[in-house]
Amino acid sequence: MSLAKLLLIEDDxxxxxxxxxxxxxxxxxxxxxxxxxxxxxxxxxRYDLIVLDLNLPDLPGYFICQQLRDRxxxxxxxxxxxxxxxxxxxxxLDGGANDYLTKPFSLGxxxxxxxxxxxxxxxxxxxxxxxxxxxxxxxxxxxxDRQNYTVSRNGVIIPLRRKEFDILQCLMEHANQVVSxxxxxxxxxxxxxxxxxxxxxxxxxxxRDKIDRPFGxxxxxTVHGRGYKFGLSISRRQSMKA
Length: 242
Fold this sequence. Notes:
2 domains; Arc Repressor Mutant, subunit A; Rossmann fold; alpha/beta
């Protein structure tokens, strides 16, 4: 089996040297010291994992991450940063990052994160992203267009952020079924957030603020101890039958 190929986007030579020395025997590594070089390389070559420093000399790491995702690149992205703020982490996840590691970090933890992302990119993505999917999901007045990334309720367009869209899509695919937090974690973040953040809770709240509250009827429900469910509540169904 050939070695996995990593693109390390980092302008700090000390960090670059340390990571290359630690990884060169188990992975093939290419280096980009600027964002423009990274965007060029990813446009012409295939990588199994991208390690992205948040603070580059020419382009913000968040911008690079978003550019790669907007181009349709699904390669796992591990972000490195000296900033340890929950909001920053959630913003990066919204922009398409798969995991976030705060500097300074141990080589052991770094290697473990890389192993997990490489494993999940091979095992989870094919299982949760079928090749043939209906272009639209429609239920209880909600219309979700996968192709154009648009959502509306009762004909009213609802702007959603990337992760909010993905969460709603997952819930609608399993309408009237309980979707566990673990399933959402695998589907949206590929198991990269459960150790440090309440990102699922934050995004569910934001989604409810846009999907439910303005329309006076809740479709996204918390099933305590189990997860979340999309559909009418039991009491609502009963009242409609009465």
